[in-house]
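Final report, results section. Input specification for complex C-07:
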Amino acid sequence: MNHIFSRVLKRATFWVAFVVAIGLLGGPLVGDAPAAKKKPLRFGVADPLTGPAAIFGKDQMQAVRWAVEDINAKGGVNGHPLEAIILDHQAKPEVGIAVVNRFVHVEKVPVYITAFSNVVKAVAPIANREKVLMLSVGANAPAIARLGDYVYTTFPLADVDMNALGKYAYQKMGKRRAAVLHVNHETGRDGAKVFSNSFKKAGGKIVVYESYEQERSDFTGLVLKVKAANPDIIHIHSVIRDFTAVVAQMRQLGVKTQITSYQTAFNPKMIQQLGKGAEGIIVTALAPSVEDNKNLPAYIERWKKAYKRMPIGLPYTQYFYDAPYIVAALYKWVLDKKLPITGENMRKALVAIKTFEQPLTNTVTINDDHTVKKPVYFWQVKGGKFTLIGSQKD
Amino acid sequence: MEYLLTVMVLIGINVILATSFNLILGYGGLMSVAHPIFYAIGAYCSGLLAIHLQIPVPLSILIGAGIAMVLSFGVSLPSLRVSGDYLVIASIGFQLGILHVINNLEFTGAAGGLTNIPVLNEGPSRSLVFVLLIAVVAACAVMLVGWIVEGDYGRAITAMRNDEEAFSALGRNAMNIKIVLFAIGSGMAGLAGALYAHYFAYVTPEQFGIFTSAALLTMVVVGGAATTWGPLVGAVLLTTLPQAITFLGLPVSIMAPLQGVIYTTLVISFLFARPQGLTGGTRGGGGLEAWSASAAFRARRRAE
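Structure output:
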């Protein structure tokens, strides 16, 4: 009997441990809508609030909440308060589909905002089919520009900053031999490809080009391969957790080469975790710095006052703070023209207005090809904090 | 209404998946967790055929299911040599291997996923028609599994699960049963994947990973493994519950840490307090109880 019991127990324990260990079902979504107000103008926002990507999503949603508060404090849109319906998509496409279906069919919003390339691609067919305007904020896969009539981005796609970084590395930094490592997901692949092409076009040579699967934790083999190739610059296009792990292992194995990455590494926690190993790392940012935006110092202060820290992924949060201002402008255009509030009219408003003066990201122009061009800022870790070292404004 | 119809589509797909998984895991006792990869194979093959070869969608769905059925040999053949925990490992290897291939091929859309998959039907009643279709397919899947496990063949499956050595000693061919179970179960999963692809128009490799294995396993365990209606109940419950939770409007600070606990509690409660699942009957009537009855049978035979 004991044998039977232990066998069943072993099997049960195995499965329980299995299920518990991997974080469980692709499940619960989390509603977090503000209190209802009279005749609010509503819009949906879907971002990861749980799971590994929530580190960015939570701060991005705080930026949205503050923006809505600020817009409403100034009278809202023609007297109507703006209301954000914030839901968690966990950065998972299947969860994103459920969330967006809820936005469209239950909440009946004419416009919604979302992020993360895999989710953006998964929910784009819903926007096009149901004629609801979708604004992608923060996702940067170049394919997003081609997802359909109702899908727009307010955020520059990867070809903007990675093209600039490839050229900057060759022309300004004098680098000639680059190693490129990327995580094998959409953002990693596309970003690495654009950087490589740009660097090669400028005259440089790619000496190592390697990918790795998500969830990997040991990068020794990759690092040794990079070390053997002796590059003078290493570009890593990955999520922040992997980036930190790769750089830490590089430093442990004595690789002191200049490292670059993209906006996701613009993260104070990365500096905390890597310590001195972070010194010299260069990252791109697509949002203006305090030198270029007069509202940014107050915004940063607001974070320090509320949370005693900088936001995770400051440039992303700048775009998220500004997204409700775009929504407000669209609503205003539709209301002023006395048109019904529909996704079709919100899209008409976007196409008509085209250029938005934004509080934290300055001028944002939505191009006819559904892209956005913005200056690229280069930041370097110096003395344990990010320091602006240059920009490319054309 | 449209939202509910979309949830119903997901329920239908999960019913097909859980029912087919139950055929392999619950009735067959074949500890494979690679079921989502056949879901992926059906989705990708059907989507790619419709995109690149312009094959009519209904035909591509059937071909996708057929390819999943054929590729089930990838798991059924190892199952002839290994069983139990070893088969779990072999099946995980198969699942991750195929996912890795999909993740690295340009024509599958690689990690970015396959977009612009033609939908099965258009029009204002698109979702309603699709729900009706998927309800019919799901009902057929449940009935098919019910029919397979009834009668002589069903008793042979149970006998193989309970004691393969004794079963073989009686001159019965366990190999054939395993291959048939994997082929039918995987074909059904492929069909579910193809239907998913042609409704949602986008698939990505991360949808078919180990998370989906855990989800299907939980549906089968909670509903009741080795029961006809258990996977259906589990699929309905575990598809609607996450949706329902979103309407509670609980703050993230509460929901985020609680969400894992809710599901963990559910799974642990069922494993220990009601291993037969929601629909399982008395001892030996389904769920983990069926397995433990099998284990008891084997132990008794060894003792004798």
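Chain A touches chain B through 59 residues (CB under 8 Å). The radius of gyration of chain A is 22 Å. This concludes the modelling results for the funded period.
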